[in-house]
Amino acid sequence: MAQRPTVAMVADTRVLGPHQFDVVGRKYIKAISELSEATVILLPATPGAVSIEAALALADGLLFTGSTANVHPDLYGSDEPPVLPDKLDPDRDALTLPLLRAAIEVGKPIFCICRGFQELNVALGGTLYQAIQNEPGRMDHREDLTTPLDVQYSAVHPLKLSGWFAKTIGTDNIMVNSLHGQGIRDLAPRLVAEAIAPDGIIEGVRLKDGPGFCVGTQWHPEWQASGNPASTALFKAFGDVIRG
After folding, report:
1. Residue 191 burial by CB count (10 A; 0-12/13-18/19+): exposed, middle or buried?
2. Active site annotation includes 37
3. Which residue out of 112, 114, 141, 214 is catalytically annotated?
4. Quick one: angle between helices 115-123 and 90-106, nearest 10?
5. What is the DSSP letter of 42?
6. CA–CA separation, 70 vs 183, rounded Å?
7. 36-39 LR contacts (CB < 8 Å, sep 24+)
């Protein structure tokens, strides 16, 4: 039996009770394990715990997950203070941004989701809106936290697809969930936008000039991925790439 490829995921930092933890949402692990058919490696965000060179040597691909924490605005040159100062994860920032750059340069396959999508843009020189809902002409892309999870993750707006996304999913229009307050303001020069929300917010990107596969989604395809044809197509495409 052929050995399954490996996908590394960077953990978030959390305080549970009096203790610090490195955590990854099970929905991401499940989607990669079942649909990309890969073995998952978790990379702790604990400072000094991970060597980027060792992580790249171990992993056939990398998934950068979503999170309730935001990228610190200092990292994309914003003069604005954090809109949500209690929703930051500097230890994750310190690992993901250099890891993304290193992985891109050596051609490791990369899939980025939500915060990971924003990290990709920042790592390559782009900027973010801290609160899309406060921008003129933009929708409120946040979920309603008072509703059940199935409602929060239900499809709420369409996306116009092009390029790799349209080819892989098999259509140029899909409906997606929306659970983000932040998003791309200035697109990084090395990325191309291939999924656009009705208000013009970029929700799908692809690296246009690197040696390897690198895509990102602002929406959450990992949620109940096996029951969603578009999500299944994305995770299976990632799995095909990491298997060579």
Report:
1. buried
2. no
3. 114
4. 60
5. E
6. 10
7. 36/7, 36/61, 36/235, 36/236, 36/238, 36/239, 36/242, 37/4, 37/5, 37/239, 37/243, 38/4, 38/5, 38/6, 38/7, 38/239, 38/242, 39/4, 39/5, 39/6, 39/7
Which residues touch 221 (CB under 8 Å, ≥6 apart)? 31, 113, 228, 230, 231, 234, 235
d(CA 156, CA 159): 10
Catalytic residue among 143, 194, 203, 222: 222
Topology of the domain comprising 6-242: Rossmann fold (3.40.50)
pLDDT digits (tens, 9 = 90+) for 182-241: 999 999 999 999 999 999 999 999 999 989 999 999 999 999 999 999 999 999 999 999
CA 151 to chain centre: 21
Say whether 214 is catalytic: no
Strand, coil or helix: 9: strand
One-letter amino acid for residue 170 of the chain:
G
Residue 222 known to be catalytic: yes
What is the residue extent of each domain of the chain? 6-242
Taking the C-alpha atoms of residue 101 and residue 98, their distance in angstroms, rounded to an integer, is 5
pLDDT above 70 coverage of the chain, percent: 99
> Which burial class, exposed, middle or buried, applies to 144 when counting CB atoms under 10 A from its CB (0-12, 13-18, 19+)?
exposed
Asked whether the beta carbons of 93 and 45 are under 8 A apart, the reply is no
Are 131 and 189 in contact by the 8 Å Cβ rule? The answer is no
